[in-house]
Amino acid sequence: IDAAFTPQKLDRTLFAALLDAGHLYGWRTPVLRDAEQQPITYRRVLAGVCILGRALAGKTAPGEHVGVLLPNAVGAVVAFMALQAFGRVPAMLNVTAGGEGMLTACRTANIRIVVCSRRFAERGRLQREIERMAGQVTFVWLEDVRGSFGLRAWLRGRYDACFAHRLPGWRGSADDPAVVLFTSGTEGVPKGVVLSHRSILANCVQAAAVIDFTSADLVFNALPMFHAFGLTVGTLLPLVRGVPLFLYPTPLHYRLVPELIYASDATIVFGTDTFLAGWARYAHPYDFRTVRYLFAGAEQLKEATRHLYADRFGVRLLEGYGATETGPALSINTPMRHASGSVGRFLPGIAWRVEKVEGLTAAGRLWVSGPNVMLGYLRASAPGVLEPLGQGWYDTGDIVDVDAAGFVWIKDRAKRFAKIGGEMVPMTVGETLASGIWPNDAHAVVALADPNKGERLMLVTSHMSADLQTLLQAAHAHGIPDIMVPRRILTMARLPRLGSGKIDYPAVKRLAETPGA
């Protein structure tokens, strides 16, 4: 790890890390680019941060949680760091949560100001969501703020940039809150996850310790910054590491993303199984020619996706694992240490233990601890009140097996087990089975109440001609016990999904429980 990434350097803020990166890699070094295709140097980033930051500071209080509702673009990075520079805490709002979901997040984190862009609101057709929120939060529009800048503001911004070490964001503590992210809500009301500066920088150090990122690379990131994967690994790591970064506003442009990866000569790309599969459908075999590392996370990587990238594009997908609460990265496969189907080995500095779960013998519930773990939660039941993490250990809720070589194998979520006739049955077995039969469709298995056996499994699938007989025959051929095979099937054209691309299981279950389903 180079001089900027020694453990001693964890004792600083994100804004201080940005300043250190500018000094170390050169203020004239182009580091950011987005769909506008205009390279931005560290010097220009700092100038924008100081000018915008002082304007936002005049509307907010030190330590205040400030909502950020912006797409993946240079402006979002500048706004994020502008808040950091003046001691405010960005709270990254998930646009896919809708108006009510974002309002819930604002109440949970005591957010009264939301930084947004009119252009983003128009292009994203967010008028309804903004109207829903406008009565309870105040929107600060970047276009209006920029339009208000006069000569005095520009001169003061230049002065702040020259003496940036005097700004509140440089003097802050590494253990202060740095950002609020919100959980996906797959298991209920989203919670606010408070990460410290140390948490995020530690996770950057941990990732850089096992993967060689250099200034000769170019990171392509289309994953949204309201998710930890897109923020920490996809954005902040390249920024403080001196690696040029290309930001694209959405991973859902399946035709455009592969073309931009090709055109930008990207060497490092981040994605999820859903988005990777979508990109592959429209990509030319040569589109990934320059890619050295293609990382997959946030959801289980399907074997069909893994083989598709290996066979068609000649790229080995490196699957990792983590959680918003851990910054997010916990483990990752690397070119040197790789086990297909696993999520790799734990990153340096992470302590872990596997606790036994009743009814399971070959796996257990994973608990982790380390410098990258969050400060705590903000809950809707106690808005704005930080609930610290007890004893420094985080319960991931995932059922895992760690083999003798240290590779982590995810079996399922603890809440993704059904209890049928007294036995613990993993629901992902049915999903994997269905994916093997109908690989081009989406599948979700949910557990429904059963008066005789406690619970029963239902397969919800986008394969409109799916039938139980085919499912059972495939299960018998693979030696899968009948108890793990869903006995009811519900078909629908599209399954509900979250902004990260993950299946929205609560929504799927509500549909499955609908009378007549």
Short description:
This protein has 17 helices and 26 strands. By secondary structure, it is an alpha/beta fold. The chain has a 9-stranded mixed beta sheet with strand order 2-1-10-9-11-12-13-14-15. It has a 4-stranded parallel beta sheet with strand order 4-3-5-6.
Note down, in words, how this protein is organized.
The protein has 17 helices and 26 strands. Helices cover 33% and strands 24% of the residues. Helix 2 (42-57) packs across helix 8 and helix 4 packs parallel to helix 6 (127-134). It is globular. A hairpin with a 6-residue loop joins strand 13 (317-322) and strand 14. The strands form 6 sheets. The protein has a 9-stranded mixed sheet. Strands 4-3-5-6 form a 4-stranded parallel sheet. A 4-stranded antiparallel sheet has the order 7-8-18-19.
**How far apart are the termini?**
55 Å
**Taking all residues together, what is the mean pLDDT?**
86
State the strand order across the main sheet: 2-1-10-9-11-12-13-14-15
What value does the Rg take, in angstroms? 23 Å
User: For the report, how would you describe the main beta sheet?
Assistant: 9 strands, mixed
Per DSSP, the total helix count is: 17
Name the helicity range: 25-40%
Q: What's the β-strand tally? A: 26
Structural class: alpha/beta
Please supply descriptive tags for the structure shown above.
33% helix; globular; disordered N terminus; four-stranded parallel β-sheet; nine-stranded mixed β-sheet; alpha/beta; 517 residues
